[in-house]
Structures are given as C-alpha cells and as structure tokens.
Amino acid sequence: MSNDTKNKGVVLRGLQETLADIYRLSGELTLTQMRVLVYVIRREKVTGSDICKALDLSRPTVSRSIATLADEKISRRDMDPIGFLRIEHDPLDRRVKYAVLTEKGKALGHRIVELFNP
C-alpha cells in the first residue's frame, strides 16, 4: 500500500470521527446549518448578510441556522443549545449582529482543519 493511500485512509477515518463528534455534540444538523457553520469557521466572525450573500441563502434561513447553532436556548424547541456560535452586537451600531465562534466552535474548526492539513 502506498503512502498516499495510507494518508487518504487516515484522513477519511479522521473525517468520520469528526462527523461523529459533530453529531454527538449537536444532534443532526441540516446541510444548510453545516454550510453556515463551516462558513463561520473559515472566517470566525461574520454578519448574517455576509452569510446570505456568500451562500445564496435567504435571511430567514440564515437566522434560523445561526439560532440553532448558537449558544441560546430556542423556546420553540426542546433541544439544548448547540453552542458552536454566539451572537455579538457591533459596539458602534447595535443593529449589526455578528455570528462568532465559541470555544467549542473553534475546537471543532481546528479539528476539521487538522484533518486536511496533516
């Protein structure tokens, strides 16, 4: 077996373990929620408008995804907060909100990056 084949096997096993961790930590995320999470992981702090434009998603879809991924309890849902993101207000303009990675979100992001940069 070549080194390249071995490396691919290690990456795939690592990816499988990371996906299992995501599922354990957050329950079942939708594809849209995963896209939003990965976008924030890549940038660490973004507005909902940034996400809408980059991923071609509607504002309500992005708002729901951020709320699901955030550290806040959603009153209409029985699940505990996922806690990958938190919402911050811009100090100069309180109307502007940012989706920011929490420590839990950063740890997940580092784990994903490590898989693809052995």
Question: Could you give the topology of this structure?
Answer:
Blueprint: H1 3-26, H2 31-43, E1 45-47, H3 48-55, H4 59-69, E2 85-89, E3 97-101, H5 103-116
Antiparallel strand pairs: 1-3, 2-3
Helix pairs in contact: 1-5, 2-4, 2-5, 3-4
Sum this structure up briefly.
By secondary structure, the chain is mostly helical. The chain is 59% helix and 11% strand.
Word description of this protein:
- The chain is mainly α and 118 residues long.
- It has helices spanning 3-26, 31-43, 48-55, 59-69, 103-116; strands spanning 45-47, 85-89, 97-101.
- The chain has 5 helices and 3 strands.
- Strands 1-3-2 form a 3-stranded antiparallel beta sheet.
- Strand 2 and strand 3 (97-101) form a beta hairpin.
- It is elongated.
- The relative contact order is 0.17.
- The mean pLDDT is 81.
